[in-house]
UniProtKB/TrEMBL annotation:
<dbReference type="InterPro" id="IPR046357">
    <property type="entry name" value="PPIase_dom_sf"/>
</dbReference>
<dbReference type="InterPro" id="IPR000297">
    <property type="entry name" value="PPIase_PpiC"/>
</dbReference>
<dbReference type="InterPro" id="IPR023058">
    <property type="entry name" value="PPIase_PpiC_CS"/>
</dbReference>
<dbReference type="InterPro" id="IPR050245">
    <property type="entry name" value="PrsA_foldase"/>
</dbReference>
<protein>
    <recommendedName>
        <fullName>PpiC domain-containing protein</fullName>
    </recommendedName>
</protein>
<dbReference type="Pfam" id="PF00639">
    <property type="entry name" value="Rotamase"/>
</dbReference>
<dbReference type="GO" id="GO:0003755">
    <property type="term" value="F:peptidyl-prolyl cis-trans isomerase activity"/>
</dbReference>
<feature type="domain" description="PpiC">
    <location>
        <begin position="25"/>
        <end position="115"/>
    </location>
</feature>
Length: 128
């Protein structure tokens, strides 16, 4: 049986050149409020920024999205599962942060990031 000798440097170089295949997708757990008009979205955002109401309660009361009964909870999702405008906003937030108003083909969203699962690099040893 032939043995192939690979140095640590070669392994590291391979890993660095192929990092994408060693990354777990980042996941975001978010809630959102979806409304039909920008004006309504801005009014709701103002209430949230002033701390006058709870995000989940406001989603239940005001959102026209299918997740409204669960307080706008969308669970965890990865890139490629939501429309681009929504996804870009959701992935830019830190846990606890609320987005500005985001327009999509569905209407106007306010997004709250609940938690994030960051890149978890798989062990580079798997290359060996």
């Amino acid at each position: 049986r032939n043995q192939v000798s690979i140095s640590d440097e070669e392994l590291l170089e391979y890993y660095n050149e192929n990092k994408e295949s060693f990354l777990e997708p980042v996941q975001v757990h978010a809630r959102h409020i979806l409304v039909e008009t920008e004006e309504e979205a801005n009014n709701l955002l103002l209430q949230l920024k002033e701390g006058l109401t709870d995000f989940a309660e406001l989603a239940k009361e005001k959102s026209i999205g299918p997740s409204a009964p669960s307080g706008g909870d969308l669970g965890f999702f990865t890139r490629g599962q939501m429309v681009k405008e929504f996804e870009d906003a959701a992935f830019s937030l830190e846990p606890g942060e609320i987005s500005e108003v985001v327009q999509s083909q569905f209407g106007y969203h306010i997004i709250k990031c609940e938690e994030k699962k960051e890149d978890l690099k798989r062990n580079a040893r798997r290359v060996e």
